[in-house]
């Protein structure tokens, strides 16, 4: 097989992949369109299955502009939902900062409400470090 044959084969394979992608995009647009009746969807689908290349080309010629408009509206709707979500998250009440958490822990330790080991474990949790196991759990009993 010559280099030219390989190049031509790659070209036709890429055309096939592009057509499959286009076919799926058209079917997705067709079935997500709320204005098209069920019979029209069935007719378009049958036309694209029976005569695939001509069906896709015809769909793009007759409905390409509305396909683009639906895609644009869907993208705008998703962008608005994302903006709304980001605003909701940004407006959510903030949790205490790390410094204030540590200050509370020091105060609890100084008042004797928590032990030094409890303070160390809580401090490690606040700082995001691994929490050391209690001293009793670390000591192992060795059989004699």
Contiguous low-pLDDT stretches (5 residues minimum) are none
Q: Main beta sheet: strand number and arrangement?
A: none
- Share of helical residues: over 70%
First-to-last CA distance: 77 Å
What string gives the helices and strands in order?
HHHHHH
Strand content: under 5%
Structure in words:
The chain has 144 residues and is mainly α. It has two domains: 3-91, no CATH class; 98-133, no CATH class. The protein has six helices and no strands. The termini are far apart.
Entry keywords:
144 residues; 2 domains; elongated
List the helices and strands and how they pair.
Elements: H1 3-32, H2 38-50, H3 52-91, H4 98-111, H5 116-127, H6 135-138
Q: What's this, in brief?
A:
The protein is mostly helical and 144 residues long.
